[in-house]
Amino acid sequence: MRALNVAATGMMAQQLFLETISNNIANMTTTGYKRRRPEFQDLLYQSERRIGAKTSDSGTVVPAGVQIGLGVKPAAVYRLHEQGDLQGTSNPLDIAVQGDGFFIVDLPDGDLAYTRSGHFQRSNESLLVTADGYTVSPGITIPEEAIDITINAEGVVEIKLQGEVDTIEVGRLELATFVNPAGLEAVGNNLLLETTASGPANIDTPGNEQTGTLLQGFVESSNVDPVTEMTMMITAQRAYELNSKVITASDEMMASVTRLR
Amino acid sequence: MDAPSYVALSRQLGLERQLAVIANNIANANTTGYLADDMSFEAVRQRASRRVEVAYVQDLTVRPDLTEGELVGTGGIFDFGIAGDGFFAVETPGGTRYTRAGHFRLDEDNQLVTWDGHPVLDTGDAPIVLPADNSRLQVAGDGTLSIDDEVVGQMQRARFADPGLLEREGAMLFRSDERPTAATDAQVSQGMLEASNVEPVLAMTAMLETTRAFEATQKLIEAQHDLTRQAVERLLDTKS
After folding, report:
1. B66 touches chain A (CB under 8 A)
2. What ipTM was reported for this prediction?
């Protein structure tokens, strides 16, 4: 019975839908999290009566044949890189990006990762690091005796020392942009990796139209909208139920066949 | 003598395929740009005797239901919904195909492609290449893509005289030997995707009808079986 397998593919797809939604809701308050959306596609079709088959010697053809679809498959779970709301924290090392840029993070294995989460700290070596202790590229040292840290919209980090009047520039943050940010590979911990689908990173200083500008004392909250997620959850759940009803229906049909004497 | 059984059998096989079509519609209830399938049957007549004509059931067609699905906002700048009788044209290794699923992205050469990587075609059947700085991409109702008032391309909106004749290929692609014309009435909107046009209520009732029709046909087979058995019993009775 084809309907049974078709309904099974439907149930699996709706389950994936629900899993994506639950991950979005779980990350509703994760800094810099971008919501995900699954995309589905129809599976192959079996031709029971082929379109364009000859129906007579005089050349008449079947105008629209009988094609029976075999179900659904997940095509992609993609991220939507809309700007999230900016939330004030008054922590001088919290930085939000307004625009398309990503912060660059040096992973311990030497590779680069990219993140929208600008919740930074100072390491024991006075380096600017992420919450996991990875260095924020290009590596900015903020001396221990600094009393005031300012990071302007163009990413220039300036400090003020005790008893001094002038500020001292200690470095400038860089941002990376991608042709297709949805193609970045998520590896958890708010980190993304470059792939062939995303294209190579264009590293630039903040302050131009492509990278966007920085805002000190703010973090970017996730762009998950609870109302959207709830309505999608209802859609997914009902579609799941519908598919299970198809299984019941095909089961009933098969049962009536086995009752035949 | 067994004609009723065979007529019932042809009906049941058809119903089984119809259930598969309904199951496929329901499985694709959340698939972007999916058009539901409608199945219809035809009668195949046979003269059983001089006066009696028997009609068997045969599948006639499965045609896409062309009702428009609602447009759902996604906020993606490369998500396009198409309202009206238009299809996006995409280039695949097997030739030009058509789709209503406007979930596109850029590839590494800044080409506008479908999620599977097939280039989206413009009005001149050529792929659309966007400039590197494309975060402010805007699309007009007629599919014209522009960045800061500068036109960078126009998506093709293909129209078919009878879209019911399109052949399905899976992965949301349709194939046609017919050369499409420009769908001037179709409106493209950005940040939207067309939801599947499967109506859960209709699919549900169609499913119930199918299972009930299957059971009714089953009764027909049983009735025919009873008749045969009774006939055999009576014949034996008269002899004894």
Report:
1. no
2. 0.75
